[in-house]
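Deliverable D2.4 — example input (structure tokens):
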């Protein structure tokens, strides 16, 4: 039971901190990947970089991070943050590019700079989309964090791997049930949050 609680808490920590890191990185990258905010000389290379990040499998990133910083939750957090940034920044850029142009043009004609346009014309329109996409990505990060323990990147997956390798299938089944319960609970919370921001 202690292993289940410890592993679940570690998995949640990896998902939460990895998601926060991804949001922190995705905000500037999303702005620089938006054709509304910057020129094609800027957004095209940034979009290419984000596509490259998305193309790398999470498990490979986690293995590289384990080799670089060692076993434990830290490589899992870094891997989740890195991998999620590729998708979140793309979502943020698309949210910026999908807003109505009329308020932006009005501020431009009044002499407002890019940051003022982002704050007063773009953000109010894109906030619900950003909230929805961020919640969705957190749910995905949590599910991905469950398997990172297989490569030594912390979380409850480490205990599942340990129990299976030592033929303790009853304990592996208990941990698997805990994982299912956690995913269902997070799914219910995310559905409620998405309805609120819809």
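Example output (designed residues):
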């Amino acid at each position: 039971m202690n292993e289940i609680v410890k592993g679940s808490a570690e998995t949640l920590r990896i998902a939460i901190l990895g998601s926060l890191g991804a949001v922190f990185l995705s905000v500037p990258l999303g702005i620089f990947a938006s054709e509304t905010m910057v020129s094609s000389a800027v957004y095209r290379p940034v979009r290419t970089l984000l596509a490259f990040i998305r193309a790398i499998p999470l498990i490979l990133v986690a293995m590289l991070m384990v080799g670089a910083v060692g076993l434990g939750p830290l490589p899992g957090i870094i891997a989740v943050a890195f991998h999620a940034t590729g998708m979140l920044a793309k979502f943020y850029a698309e949210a910026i590019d999908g807003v109505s142009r009329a308020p932006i043009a009005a501020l431009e004609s009044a002499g407002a700079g890019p940051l003022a346009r982002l704050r007063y014309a773009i953000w109010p329109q894109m906030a619900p989309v950003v909230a929805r996409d961020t919640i969705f990505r957190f749910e995905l990060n949590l599910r991905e964090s469950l398997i990172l323990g297989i490569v030594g990147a912390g979380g409850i997956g480490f205990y599942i791997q340990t129990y299976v390798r030592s033929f303790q299938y009853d304990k592996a089944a208990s941990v698997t049930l805990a994982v299912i319960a956690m995913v269902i609970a997070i799914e219910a919370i995310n559905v409620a949050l998405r309805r609120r921001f819809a």
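Helices lie at 2-32, 40-55, 58-69, 73-97, 101-109, 114-148, 157-165, 169-197.
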